[in-house]
Amino acid sequence: MDFDTYLFNVGSALREVERDATVSIVPEAFPRGRELVDTYTTAAKLLADKVDGYRHQDGAAEDVLRGYMTETTVALKMPKPPGLELATLAATDGTVAQANERAENCRPAKAEPEPSTAPVALPQAKDGGNLSACSDGRCEVLVFAGAVVPVPKRFRFDVFRVRAIADGIMQIGAKGGNASMTSPMETGRSTVLNGLGVTAVAVGDGKAVLRLASV
């Protein structure tokens, strides 16, 4: 997922928290419910406003963008007033305990295995190192860090390039108009940028096989 999409999704989710807290929830039915809802609503609004500001930092350097993403991820762990943890409420109130038992979404999420980001052996790229093959929006090429890949104007990119390849991760950077996108990709990862399908077929040591296709 690219940086701009990540922030858009986070911002939208936070606005939904604000809306649901004022429209869908009846907190008075639960112990300290109003305090809990007000805490999350206030935190969601503050963070949503901050995320909206991040989305306008189009020309920021990659390390700055990564800092924004890290800060946003940390801030999503919103503070709760003491005693409002789910386990504490379930232990002290039968209604909460019963609802928690029946609601699958309230259970702790199962940890998913982290994808491997070790460099891998590269397959033969269909178009070899011929980057001009991508000028029609469909190619499979061998790329190195710093490679500028030509793509059709219909995707609205002024520059589409491989920013870096290291530790099994290929960093794709794209810029068009006042917007910029950065997408870290490990072997097998795919994403869509402005209607252009981007796949990291394989990411090796300092080089990778990149596939582009219209979607």
Annotation keywords:
34% helix; 215 residues; 3-stranded antiparallel β-sheet; 5 helices; alpha+beta; 7 strands; single chain; elongated; 4-stranded antiparallel β-sheet; 2 domains
* Main beta-sheet strand count, sense and barrel state: 4 strands, antiparallel
Number of domains: 2
SS strand fraction: 15-25%
Give the overall shape.
elongated
CA distance, first residue to last residue: 16 Å
The secondary-structure class comes to alpha+beta
Rounded to the nearest angstrom, the radius of gyration is: 22 Å
Number of beta strands: 7
What's the order of the H and E elements?
HHHHHEEEEEEE
Strand order of the largest sheet: 1-7-6-5
Oligomer: single chain
Average pLDDT reading: 77
pLDDT under 50 segments (min length 5)?
none
Report helical residue fraction: 25-40%
Number of helices: 5
Describe this structure in words.
By secondary structure, the chain is an alpha+beta fold. The chain is elongated. The model has no long low-confidence stretch (mean pLDDT 77). The chain has two domains: 3-81; 131-214, no CATH class. It has a four-stranded antiparallel beta sheet with strand order 1-7-6-5, with no helix packed on it. A three-stranded antiparallel beta sheet has the order 2-3-4, with no helix packed on it. The protein is built from five helices and seven strands; from the N terminus they run αααααβββββββ. It starts with a helix and ends with a strand.
